Amino acid sequence: MRCNPIGYIRSPYTDTFGIPRQPRLVTAAEARLELCPAFAREEAFKALDGFSHVWILFIFHHDCLEAGWKPTVRPPRLGGRQSVGVFASRAPYRPNPIGLSAVEHLGLIRTASGLALRLRGVDMLDGTPVLDIKPYVPYADAIPEARSGFAVAPTALTARSVRFSAAASAALTRYDPDGSRALRELITQVIAQDPRPGYLDRYPERREFGLNLMELAIHWRLESDHSLITAIELAAAAR
């Protein structure tokens, strides 16, 4: 069996560290699915505008294609300390490294690169190959009585509040002067999810962290009751 990508994701997540662990947790994260020329045909999307959300089937391409699979994994949801079977998880290291995400669909656009599908609430690395798109059908796809095992839904009580230092706020004004990029919202939502690996709670002395979003390097520090964004600057690759 052979599968060919229909397109590639362009997302703000240029680094695997910081990608939310599930789709739609960071609603400020907009992305585009840039379609390969063979599939960039508007008639292939006829009637999709009647659906608010779509399923995206994609490949975990970063470090996964050659790494092979593991029968057990340690999910971040369990703090990285308890093992579960790979088929009881959404870990990327699978027999076939295929991912599945339900995301908001914002319509087709034409860009300099060709036809693209706008998406919101993605959890995919920039450059991710996409295998297929399917409409999300609420009456069939949503199962309110379903059990979710160890994957308990996050709540507002588990998210850390996020504040910006004066220097970080000044940088936001510089990199997003009119707010059209929604940088403050994106950074706030990503850091509020606490992207640190679960095992780091065993090293309470470590308080400083950093990750890349788009072309920017975001630095933050854990305070007693919040996360403080200390600096926002161009990432090394963008300088």
TrEMBL record:
InterPro entries: TrmO-like_N, TrmO_C, UPF0066_cons_site, YaeB-like, YaeB-like_sf, YaeB_N_sf. The keyword Transferase applies. Residues 3-145 form the TsaA-like domain. It comes from the Bacteria. One of its GO terms (molecular function) is methyltransferase activity. Pfam families: TrmO_C (PF18389), TrmO_N (PF01980). SUPFAM superfamilies: YaeB-like (SSF118196). CDD domains: UPF0066 (cd09281). Keywords: Methyltransferase, S-adenosyl-L-methionine, Transferase. GO terms for biological process: methylation. PANTHER family: TRNA (ADENINE(37)-N6)-METHYLTRANSFERASE. Belongs to the tRNA methyltransferase O family. This is tRNA-Thr(GGU) m(6)t(6)A37 methyltransferase TsaA.
